[in-house]
Amino acid sequence: MAAKRFAACFLMLVLISLLVAYSFSLPLNWRSLNLIKKVNCKGPYIGLITVFPPEETAFFQIGAFKPNQKHPSVDLSGRRFLVGKIHDKKVVYVRCGVGMVNAAAATQQMLDLFDILGIVHFGIAGNANNSLSIGDVTIPQEFAHTGIWDWLNPNRSLNYDEVANLDFKRYNVPRGDNLLGHIGFSYEQFFSEYGKANIARPLFWANTTRQWLQVAANLKGIKLNQCLNSSVCLPQKPQLVVGLRGSTANIFVDNAAYRDFLFQTFRVSSVDMESSAVVMTSLSNGFPVIVIRGLSDLAGGQSGHNSIDTFGSLAAINACKVVVQFIKQLHLDTREPGFPRSIHP
Ligand SMILES: *[C@@H]1O[C@H](CO)[C@@H](O)[C@H](O)[C@H]1NC(C)=O
Ligand SMILES: *[C@@H]1O[C@H](CO)[C@@H](O)[C@H](O)[C@H]1NC(C)=O
Ligand SMILES: *[C@@H]1O[C@H](CO)[C@@H](O)[C@H](O)[C@H]1NC(C)=O
Ligand SMILES: *[C@@H]1O[C@H](CO)[C@@H](O)[C@H](O)[C@H]1NC(C)=O
């Protein structure tokens, strides 16, 4: 009798160990996958992606996000995806982490696993356009990844299949050549649902979704915060600007000369470290995407301290205000056949 019971227990233990070993060998844990199945039954959702804790704090401070009571969150690859609603629209939210790898990974995972209609990416950015001000919110029409470089031998002549060149020697003070040579800006390799499989095409400007930009353009009069508290205010009322250009690289820009170069060369009004990765990943997969960034600093154009520490939270709040109004205005009865796949060429 005892031997029999022991055998049964032993078998059970072996089975459990096998199951545990198997679940560790799965790319995602089965509990999360099971949860996602249940979450998706209640979909589709708008995917919200922000970057780092101060932006997340602003998102919760706005108070528009109502967590789902039954399935509030799913953990995947160390990130926490939150399920809930904003103005009766179903959303899945994640904080991806700084940089383009985190941005692309979180975007791809969201699109692959959740039932998603499109991506709203938001946060703060550096301001590269002297006609804009700190506290303004920008919703760019297109993004370039301005961090794909060929760092060239000083003796090599400029290469004209590059998008642009940055000559270090032009920035020498006092003037004179140095050994850093120049960097040539290159294209992304863009894979797409709509292209030939396994063939990438060169891409410099990645467009956000035109129909969503039109919705955003109607928000232009939106009231944004001008004051941090009762004593610290911006000199002018912040505004929403729609349709300019943005740039992204794994580079935090706090340098006036490089800021000027980016504005003069690419006509970009904002600099950040994630947007083009989120946009390109969404476009590759055929999903609509929009980027909403509050301007927190002058990316090096300031005299004195970088204002990100003072006005970062205000810029983040202003971006969130626009996100909430955008989601409110979005018509989601667009899920007719062909949506979202008809939105992109
Ligand atoms: C560039 O050319 C100069 C003059 O010909 C030569 O002395 C130098 O070594 C070259 N530099 C490199 C990095 O090739
Ligand atoms: C992106 O938008 C610009 C401006 O509307 C347009 O000229 C360009 O063709 C678009 N690019 C793609 C790949 O659709
Ligand atoms: C307002 O914010 C500034 C900057 O963070 C801080 O130095 C100041 O103490 C705050 N003032 C009040 C009245 O809270
Ligand atoms: C800079 O911002 C202003 C104000 O929104 C805008 O009119 C202008 O076109 C922007 N410059 C560029 C190069 O995009």
TrEMBL record:
GO terms for biological process: nucleoside metabolic process. InterPro entries: Nucleoside_phosphorylase_d (IPR000845), Nucleoside_phosphorylase_sf (IPR035994). Residues 1-25 form the signal peptide. One of its GO terms (molecular function) is catalytic activity. It comes from the Eukaryota. Residues 46-328 form the Nucleoside phosphorylase domain. The keyword Signal applies. Keywords: Signal. CDD domains: MTAN (cd09008). This is Bark storage protein A-like isoform X1. The gene is LOC110765537.
